[in-house]
Amino acid sequence: DAISLLLVPKDTANVNLVPLVTTAGDKMFEVSFNCAAVPADNVLGDLNKAWTALDIALQKATALKTLEMVGGMQAALDMTLEYAKHRVAFGRPIGSFQAVHHHLADMYRETETSRLLAYEAVWRLSQGLPASREVSLAKSRVNQASGFVTRMAHQIYGGVGYYIEAPLEIYTRRSIAG
Which residues of the chain have pLDDT under 50? Predict the structure, then answer.
C-alpha cells in the first residue's frame, strides 16, 4: 500500500546514476535519490495507489524477458546443432555420436517446455486474465532451463564455446544473468 509512481527526469537535481557492470553486458544503472524534488504533475495515476499498475507492468516485463531467454535458448540450440553437424572428431561429425544426440534432444526438450510456458504467460496477460502463477512458472522454468541449455551447448562445443569471439558466449552470459 501507499506506493506511487513518479516521472523523474534523469537530470533532476539530487538524482545520481552510477553505471553497473553486469554479467550479460546490459546497460544498467544504480539510481539513487537524495531528497530529489519533482512537481506534483509528475505523479502517474493516483497518489498511493500504484501497486496494481506496477504489479501488471512487472508481470509483463517478466513474461517478455522469458520470451527473450527462450530466443537465446533456441539460438544456442540451433548453433550447437550446426556445429555438431560440421565438427569432425575421430573421422566423423560429432553429431553422429549417441551422447551428442542425447544432449541435443535434452536441449530441445528444455527449449520447447520453456517456450510453451512463456507463451502461456504472455497469452494470459494479452487477454487480461490473471497470470501471476503462469508468469512465475515461466520465469522459474526458463531461468533453470536456459542455464541447462547453454551448459549442454558448451559440452558439445568444448572450450571454443567460451571464447568471447564465439556467438555462444553471449547466450551463456545472458542465461546466467536471467
Answer: none
The β-bridge relationship of strands 28-33 and 15-20 is: antiparallel
What lies within 8 Å, CB to CB, of 9 at 6+ separation is 15
Structure pTM?
A: 0.86
For 130-167, the pLDDT digits (tens) are 999 999 999 999 999 999 999 999 999 988 777 777 78
* HEC-encoded secondary structure of 35-67: CCCCCHHHEECCCCCCHHHHHHHHHHHHHHHHH
